[in-house]
Give the backbone structure.
Amino acid sequence: MRPWYFLVVMSLPWAAKAAAPVQDPDVGIQAGSPGAAFNNDRYHLGFDVYLKSGDLQAAFQVARKALQARPDDKVWLKSFAQVAEWTAQPSVALDAWVKLARLSNDRVAWDAVGRLAPSLLDDEAFLAYQQQALRRQPGDEVLIKSIAQLYERLGRVDDGLAFFAQLAAGKPTQLLLETEATMAEHTGHDEQARQLLNRLNQQYGPREDWLLRVAAISYLQGNQIQAWGDLHAAAATMPGTAAGYWQTYALLSTQLGKKDDAQKAYQVLVDTGKASASDLMEYVVLLENEDGLAAARLSETLYRSYHVDSAMITAMFLYQREHQPMAAQALLSLPTPEQMANLEQNPDFLEQRGQLEWQQRKYSSAYADFALGLKLRPGNPQLLLDLVSLASDQSDTGKLGSLLPDYGQRASVEPTLWLAWANGWNQMNQPLRALPFQQAYCRLHPDDLFALLTLADIYAKAGDVVVAERLRHRVAVAAKSPGAAVLTPERTAALNDALLRLRLERVTPDVGMALLKARYKQSAGGKLDPATRDLILGWLLAQGSEERARAWMNRTYHGDAPVWAQVSVANTSEDEGALLVKVMQPDGAASDADRSEMTTSLTEKMGWTRQNENTAFDAQERNPDSELALATEGFDSTSRARSASLELQADALQQSALSRYASGVAWAAPLNTRWQLAASADAIVQHSSELDQLGKPPSGNRENIETQYQEANSSWVFNLTNTTLLKEYLGAALGQQYQAQPGSSLYWRAEYNADAPESAPLLAIGAKNLLKVGFNQSFSGPWFVGGGLQADSFHTQANQSLGEGEEVNVEMGRHFTFLALDQTVTLMGMQAHFKTARETLAPDIQALIPPGQVTTAAFFMPTSFNQVGLYWAFGEPTPAGDRQRWSPYGELGANYANTSGAGLDAAFGMHGSVLGGDMLKIGFAQGKSGQDSGSTIRRASLTYQYFY
């Protein structure tokens, strides 16, 4: 037999022949491809020869050709995969390795798949590798999570869930169940996720995160009750450290009205120190109406821990509501100076601190806090209520005289202010102005017997004794009725005191004394309460027993008797010296309101015409920080309202071709509390900027005298003017504004020879007689409506008729406050109709009409028009009272008229004090509307007013 190497040598020529280069269209590389038919032994021999000779491409082709003949041959698959890697064909190699691994479960093949698949981003191959790896290592957490992610990335969620379910069927470990649940959650299989999580809680829990996930599924499905039930079932076993569970359980319990469960949950968070700021806030809300003191302490804890401003405000409110002023006072020591400065920019904090100061009888400080709060939040009803109530409580007529008129419009549309305004006007001895507010409140609260009794008192003060007695009888009967309305304890006590006071007025002194003795015995088990003490004092003074009243004051008030009683005793005894001593006591011995009241009494007794003002301002100069000096802060506006003033004014107007300049001086002074007198003198300069539109207009001057009369619900105005322009002529006006009830007013005005701004020629040399009527109505809130009618008769200043006019306007709008400015949005509609006279014009009038213009009255008369407009106004263009700080005002509007099309209106101005006792106002305006046939109107004004 020939040796084996002889066979090898004999086969080399075939191998050489087989090595001839061939272009493989599938592989795309130069390689030797076997040309002979497949023979496994010879192919293995050729493959080995090529490997040994380093011809990897030829070896690749041999292995490839072999696989075509034997696709599932594990040896050739492995050889092909290896040589594919060596020839830099990893994708081809990976496919071969995957096939081999699946056929043989060969460890080397699987390792090759695990090595190549990630770099080739072949998730399917890598998934197959990890699945077989997991079978070898069933508890490998990393593999399990990676397989879940691969299934999600491939979009084969259902296959993934089936795979994990199959694994868990044999041995359902916690990890497998949790992975399956997570995959179900992520892919929207909510019901399957719920079942798996519940299974986890039953077998391995309950656990916080599983419970929260189950509850979240229920909640997102809109089933809050199920979500709450999922959590509630584990409440007994969950540890206090599971903060997320207890927070969610508390919130769900609150939403579903399960207050007991919510409180228990929040208490667990508080006890374990896991409560966040929002947890504490929610817990406070739950407790504030059930356990106010506990809620206050929680709010204090919240502020101490997180420095939340609202927590400080809530704690102060609750401590005061629960009659714990010392605890509320202690809170004020917690903030740093910087934190306190920040709190003092919060009107809610100022309101609560002012309430505390009021309790502590720091009246000036309380008033200053309320006033600053109102400055920061203008028109706020609670702060207005605080200011007026404090002023009423102190009988401070000076402050009431400033507040009640200035904020009367706001009060008329705010039901919470009606009682305060009624009480304030009543204290000011103006029952007719108090009456509409008290009536409005009683209509809203017909069962409030105390309010009805107060209404009767106001009617009596106003002189309507019949109505007052009828109301008192009604209240007395209703109070004894078993079906009487239930009032708060405070209102009930006030009602009983008022009824007793009313009865004391109608009985003999001995019966009155018996009634008071019975009341004294009933009061707090024999301990004298403030209400009974005041009742007895008032009755003694009403009986004329000044000596007994003085003895009662000394024995029960210990030098702190109310000012009304001290003034009454001093007035009755003509004891000016006692009043003077009281006024001159050091700061702090009497409140600013007490001092003002006593000084007013001295003024009346001793004829001191300005003693009240001098006392206040002298004290301010001596000690600017004293209580009395602080009280004068709000005194200036009251003083101005009844002080004389001098005014310098200048006004520039451009209307069409007419330029009109007016400058002058004015004076005003009150004659008494009801009458005021004013006078003014102005120089008027007119010229034409376009002589082809308007001839040369005349210039001249005007003098005016005006008087105003103020009643409780009505104000009157009457003036006379003398004007010299084209001719010298007299003018007059008479008007009234009547307030029918809070929020509702009517007005009318008649004028003779008034200015006629309807057109530039009319304003230059014309005048008009007019009569107008209208109304304004505010509703319970910021909304209002209004309207008016006006009839005009136009003529020249030489009294030659030019035509007639009629105007109708309606408006509706809303008041609001934004960025500390009072603002109003108004929608307005107007219709104006004008009729031209047919008279021939006088020669002196015709001379004012430029050449080329029609020399008839039509030159002067405006065009009829219909117009709608929307306007936004802010600030106060005509401020009342004191304005120490500078404030802006203005208006922006858009309108449309059928004659002139679209138009815009804009105005802006500023007003404020320059020297302290004065007022400077600057304003600019420009607009275009249906007036004067769509002419652009520009105006600038400057006014300086000095009060003395």
